[in-house]
């Protein structure tokens, strides 16, 4: 049965609003909010657990029935949606438990990457290049924020993402015998094309500050992406994509 949402003050409307804007609320409820038909298709293909669906004005039968479905007027839907002028639907997905791979080969660590678009794009690339795990360290954007989820283009439903402290992440790499490299602009950094990265972990930091001195001090080496132009650095998402490509390229 489909329930009609009528008021901004209703408990269910307030619930969806909080899912969209509050990371702690998402974690407490184990749910995150997604928007759009493309993401709904990806969620269904990935066997994600869909818990609520909110339709804009009219329900469609194309995707079958869901356990909890709602209708909202265009005005109320626009109030609910984290996107501007979204055609919908809006839906919640159950978070997957953090499960670290037992035998990782390729691991990416992200530190202080605060832009949700960058984090989502990195997840999408990691999914494409079969990276075993993306580890989010302190200061990264919430993987379940609506902008991150949308930028991931469905990868959030499939890609293994772990949240760890710096110490936990380094210990995880050590426990699995993965050499840890830090991407850095320094005289010590080696051309990544000369390194064997097919079984490794690489840490990427923010564009503004790079990796912390604390993390770099625990890396086994540093790497750099060679550039011939005048640009000082690359966007974090672009840099991560190049690193992941090298991880998949095989032996150097």
List its salient traits.
252 residues, alpha/beta, seven-stranded parallel sheet
Helical residues, percent: 25-40%
Number of strands: 12
Strand order of the largest sheet: 8-7-6-11-9-12-10
Largest sheet, described in full?
A: 7 strands, parallel
Shape descriptor? elongated
| Secondary-structure content class | alpha/beta
- Averaged pLDDT, please? 94
C-alpha-based Rg, rounded:
20 Å
* First-to-last CA distance: 58 Å
Q: How many distinct helices?
A: 9
Give unreliable regions as ranges: none
What is the N-to-C order of secondary-structure elements (H for helix, E for strand)? EHHEHEEHEEHEHEHEEEHEH
Short description:
The protein has 252 residues and is α/β, with parallel strands linked by helices.
Overview of the molecule:
- With 252 residues, the protein is of the alpha/beta class.
- It has nine helices and twelve strands.
- The protein has helices spanning 11-21, 23-29, 37-45, 74-80, 116-128, 146-152, 166-175, 213-216, 236-248; strands at residues 2-5, 31-35, 50-56, 69-72, 90-94, 106-110, 133-136, 161-163, 180-183, 190-191, 200-204, 221-224.
- It has a seven-stranded parallel sheet with strand order 8-7-6-11-9-12-10. A five-stranded mixed sheet has the order 1-4-3-5-2, with helices on both faces.
- The mean pLDDT is 94.
């Amino acid at each position: 049965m489909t329930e009609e949402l009528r008021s901004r003050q209703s408990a269910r409307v307030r619930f969806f609003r909080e899912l969209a804007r509050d990371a702690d609320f998402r974690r407490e409820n184990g749910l995150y909010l997604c928007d759009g038909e493309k993401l709904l298709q990806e969620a269904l293909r990935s066997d994600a657990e869909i818990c609520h669906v909110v339709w804009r004005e009219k329900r469609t039968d194309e995707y079958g029935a869901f356990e909890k479905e709602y209708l909202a007027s265009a005005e109320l839907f626009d109030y609910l949606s984290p996107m501007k002028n979204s055609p919908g639907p809006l839906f919640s997905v159950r978070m997957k438990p953090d499960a670290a791979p037992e035998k990782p080969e390729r691991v990416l660590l992200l530190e202080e990457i605060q832009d949700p678009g960058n984090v989502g794009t990195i997840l999408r690339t990691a999914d494409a290049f079969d990276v075993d795990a993306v580890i989010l360290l302190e200061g990264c954007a919430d993987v379940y924020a609506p902008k991150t989820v949308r930028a991931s283009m469905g990868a959030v439903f499939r890609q293994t993402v772990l949240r760890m402290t710096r110490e936990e992440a380094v210990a995880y790499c050590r426990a699995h015998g993965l050499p840890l490299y830090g991407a850095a602009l320094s005289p010590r950094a080696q051309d990544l094309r000369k390194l064997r990265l097919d079984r490794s972990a690489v840490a990427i930091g923010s564009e503004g500050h790079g990796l912390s001195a604390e993390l770099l001090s625990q890396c086994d080496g540093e790497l750099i992406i060679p550039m011939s132009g005048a640009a000082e650095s690359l966007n974090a998402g672009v840099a991560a994509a190049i690193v992941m490509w090298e991880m998949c390229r095989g032996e150097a």
